[in-house]
Amino acid sequence: MEKQPVHTVVGGAHLFRRDTAVKLGRIAARYLDRYAADPASLADVLGNRLPPETAGALPPETAGALAPETAEAVHRRVRAKLEREPVESFLIDFEDGFGARSEAEEDEAATGAAAEVAAGAAAGSLPPSLGIRIKSLSEATGGRALRTLELFLAGLAGTGGGLPDGFTVLLPKIVDAGQVERLAAALDRLEATLGLPEKRVGIDLMIETPQSLVAPDGRIAVPGLVAAAGGRCRTVHLGAYDLTGGVAVAAEAQTLGHPLCDMARQLLQLSLGGSGVRLADGATNVLPVEPHRGKTEISPAERAENTAVVHDAWRLHCADVRRSLNQGFYQSWDLHPAQLVSRYAAVFSFFLEGLDAAASRLDRFVTAAGQAVLTGSVFDDEASGQGLLNFFLRGLASGALTAEEAARSGLTPAELETRSFRAILEGRGG
Questions:
Q1: Which of 416, 406, 284, 399 is nearest to 344 (CA)?
Q2: Structural domain harbouring 398
Q3: Of 15, 101, 275, 281, which is most buried with the most CB atoms under 10 A?
Q4: Torsion of CA 243, 249, 250, 256, to 10 degrees
């Protein structure tokens, strides 16, 4: 099964270069060195000293200070991640992150981005997952979107290097299934024309309009959109700000913690559960940008203000990431390189803080079941057991947990690879 990235980093197509992911990691490492150089500083960001507007964002069990040993492990793993693999998924953006540009400029950006992807693939500098976001397939921008798609794919195919594994096209501003069908048909044609394998290009869907979440007749619209992708849909993303803006929520209230976003996440989970389609949450749009950046000289007061602004933005981002994880969304969006610090700190602390309890519970469940397979009420605990197993699978996939830490669950590597609590029980009862 293809690993789900913990995030999608979004950047304008005109800015993308073959070594963009590497550069983002270097920038993030400088932020770590400047604003959280030691475990205690990072623990302060992850702890319970939240700005007033986010004080209720973290659930009670995650709002306390990190234990020193956990803080040290998180800090060490964040630094290693930024050096080894700072970006897990990157989205080359021809929509919001690209802005309003001329036809000629977008043509140039499409062919240029394709060339940079090819060069990055040859150099081994691309992130594990890559995709592009085209403009919407509305009447106003649909032709432009498909032209960009064709120029990009043709440019990449023309290099002889082929598409990166798991390459996807994200479709935004969806209002009906016909737009998804139009994109799928365009990909069918382009794959045939360019000599690409059938269904080689995936489709990701951005749920950011009311119509893409709930159809006019009141049905949940998302399964129909997924079906319209013709087997290409890999991930469904929540666009929190467009969605809340589309129902007249005031700008200052448009956050990932808005009740409408909670409801949207739940509808996505309920309508796509068991489908194999992955889910991704939205972005934190308050960025860790210093107010006194770019100066050759900076006063102590300005330095303190820079630190406060970055730390508050990190706290908000951590709160958003932890909310997503607690609600079962293991991927969401990042918009700034400094958010890589808070991203991995939040993800790693989530799994490390829950490790002891999860390991003890899972070991107890499996041991008890192994002594009484298919008798009594053993399968009353199957749902909980699968949830605990998922905790370890996600923790391993994210790099938050080591194989040695996962072994504390009492499961062997082979059992973990089954990804099924029932299969583990049956295997132990054989």
A1: 399
A2: 351-429
A3: 281
A4: -50
